[in-house]
Amino acid sequence: MTTGLAGLAGCSGGSGSESDTESDSGSGGDSETDSDSGTVTGSSSSGTYTIGATIPETGVFSSLGQDLKRGYEMGVQRINDNGGLHGQEVELIVRDDESTPKKVREGLQSIISNNDVDMLWGSFAGVLNLAAAAVAERSEIPFLKIASSGDKVHEQQGFEWTSTPFPVSTDHTRGTKNALDLIPESERPSKVAIWAPNTNWSIEMADMWEQTLTDGGYEVVFRGKHQLHSKDFTTLISETQSAGAEVLLDTPAPDGGITAMQQINNSDYSPKLIQFTRAADTSSWWSAMGEAGEHVLMSPGWVPGLTGNGNEQMIQTYRDTYDIASGELLPVMVGASYNLTQVAEQAVNAAEATDRATVRDAIRSGTYETVSGSFGFDDYGRPTDFTTPMGQWIDGNQHLVSPETDGEAFREMVYPMS
């Protein structure tokens, strides 16, 4: 369980700006002097389109590494079955980054030094993805990343080669409002409390939640801070209850979120709805909480219940390839990473050529239909018009509750939560 919980520390929320030390140095070594002597400037001359990636197969994020890798593997198989990229067979070269920025840099630089690399794909969480982005930007290689949600960091870093087919803070907060707006107006809550770990991305999320919900007619009646791995939420719970908050929003680390939920359940405070982005985003939440974590909302980038845009093919391929029971739902990270492979396929095949600059421009100028939804990118590589799929823990599984679909895994949002 310890490994599983640690592996969650940075899912969609362990993103953007946070590093190992919970600071804003998430670029993971931009200032280091390690060389890029293996960098090449053209596309592959071997007839193979080569993609490099690191994945946390070991270390604190390892519980998510398998899901990330499976989404990539299924995507590469689909691309090659469809004729490859510009007629070139795709080769995916993967290194274990051991869940550390240093190993991300070393792994990608090794791949680049020994291969004609055309594109890079991301690892898990902002602390690893920003280390990868630093390599991609220096090496001038198109880079796609998911599972990191920092919004402002794209503009602050001036990304030219990095794009994120995954909801960023703006999308997450808009998704929350969409979910709340599903509640009939006569029953809809109006008073919201926002908690935030004292880290840059979490503060960014809190600011955007406050702005989005205030503009939407909701009242933020309390806002409080806590440490990322806090073990005592009793004062925050008391203050939130005194403020009359009906809805509680937070981006805690998994251990902090579990502690907070346990202490809420043991208190007199009963919010009508809770969203714990990051802590509740993957299956380890249920492993740790069980029914005590029922009906908590999350927004992990892809949720079972989405339909169209290749979802049915992805689900069937997953079950056929990995011998999964017919009724078992896909892990959310499989869908999120598979979505990235669809962006790569659509962008490269729409490009006039496969040289890196042309592909980069094609990524930024395209619009995409993926298992996660429809979206494009802005000039800094952030998604535009991304409708964040919102999930809720219902009967021990993550189910889509917004937007509404006819998918078998879609459920109507439970409100008020039990």
UniProtKB/TrEMBL annotation:
Biased composition (Low complexity): 36-48
Provenance organism: Halobellus rubicundus
Biological classification of the source: Archaea, Methanobacteriati, Methanobacteriota, Stenosarchaea group, Halobacteria
Keywords recorded for this protein, A-Z: Signal
The keyword Signal belongs to this UniProt entry's keyword annotation: yes
Region (Disordered): 1-52
Residue stretches making up the Leucine-binding protein domain: 48-384
InterPro entries associated with the record: BCAA_transport, Leu-bd, Peripla_BP_I
Official protein name in the record: ABC transporter substrate-binding protein
PANTHER family: LEUCINE-SPECIFIC-BINDING PROTEIN, PERIPLASMIC BINDING PROTEIN OF ABC TRANSPORTER FOR NATURAL AMINO ACIDS
